[in-house]
Amino acid sequence: MKEKEKIKKKAESLGFSKIGFTTPQSIKGDFLLQWLRKGAEAGMAYMRRYTELRLNPSLLLPGVKTIISLAVNYYPGDVFYKDVKISRYALGRDYHRVMKKMMKELFSYIKSLYPEARARFFVDSAPVLEREIARRAGLGWIGKNTMLVTREYGSWVFLGEIFLTVEIPPDRPFDRNFCGTCRRCIEACPTGALSPYFLDSNLCISYVTVEHKGKIPDFYFNKNNGWIFGCDICQEVCPWNRKAKKTSLKDFLPEPERIFITREKLSSMSRDEFQRLFKGTPVKRAGYEKIRKLVSNLNP
Known about the structure:
about 30% helix; four-stranded antiparallel β-sheet; alpha+beta; two-stranded parallel ribbon; 2 domains
């Protein structure tokens, strides 16, 4: 068995759902520059920094020759919320920590095949255009909701990258797009944040509840649909997510009390209770005060 196939097999045994290989060649950044020109990054000022690194992955690791793109299915199965909603990706353990641990284990194996290899690991931790890299590595296509969509798992996947200083033959890029004429994600977005292959973060419920700092925008008051951390609407309506497979990783299976949390419970929850309930999850990023503020602004 060739080294590349051994690495793929090892990745599967560690719990990765998909793996692909690509080169660190420059990325044509018209889509990123247009997005920035329109101010669609909203308050995420960091998206305007390190543009050169985003478009030239080779600058992130001297001597890089291969980028391994990895995807993990996090779909927790059917979720039936009560009166407040937390995005499915945040119901389990923080994916940054889980994936990085898995990636380090995979690199240890790669080192046994290539002792001279050096590497860097990225899971939302550097200026990496991870969806475009995943597409180039053959994992899937970028859908109209701007998410990476895979045939096997829809868009319910976390992405991560291993930059390697050894050369491994690249996979064929995913050059087809299977969104077709479908506009369900665009039509379902209650705030109009989506147009085909373009997301205006200024109007995105997920942005407001996770990244936004300061005064809550007025549109959130009557268009939040119960979301207090993240938003899954554009994924819930995607036909490619209809037959999503439940994740096999226990880390991403939610505690029932996080799914069935109520507006009343969150409104009366102490800071210590909040820390206990959301310990080790992405929800802690928003923080106790912001979650309470969002809850108080939910639709009556």
